[in-house]
Write a structure and sequence with these properties.
The chain is mainly alpha-helical and 87 residues long. It has one domain. The chain is built from four helices and two strands. The protein has a two-stranded antiparallel ribbon with strand order 1-2. It starts with 6 loop residues before the first helix and ends with a helix.
């Protein structure tokens, strides 16, 4: 498995998602191996929560509508930035 994601790598994926440089599917594909691993070795709870959210970025509620939208992506980014600012 690749190196363990940190807050910066999660933040970069969120920014790429919001800017359109990465699709929902690409971001979910990046996060999913960590979320589904038997032992992901992620000790930072902020990173873990963000990975779980990102793994579902491409979930749909219908053939043409996604479960999560831009407001969700901004909220996930805010959670990372707030955690970084409080340390």
């Amino acid at each position: 498995m690749r190196s363990v994601p940190d807050r910066d790598s999660v933040r970069e994926r969120l920014l790429a998602l919001l800017s359109g440089r990465m699709s929902r599917e690409e971001v979910a594909d990046w996060a999913n191996p960590w979320v589904t691993a038997d032992d992901p070795s992620i000790e930072d709870s902020v990173v873990w929560e963000a990975l779980k959210e990102l793994a579902g970025a491409d979930l749909k509620v219908s053939p043409s509508a996604y479960l999560h939208g831009e407001d969700d992506f901004h909220a996930w980014l805010d959670a990372i930035e707030t955690a970084n600012a409080s340390e």
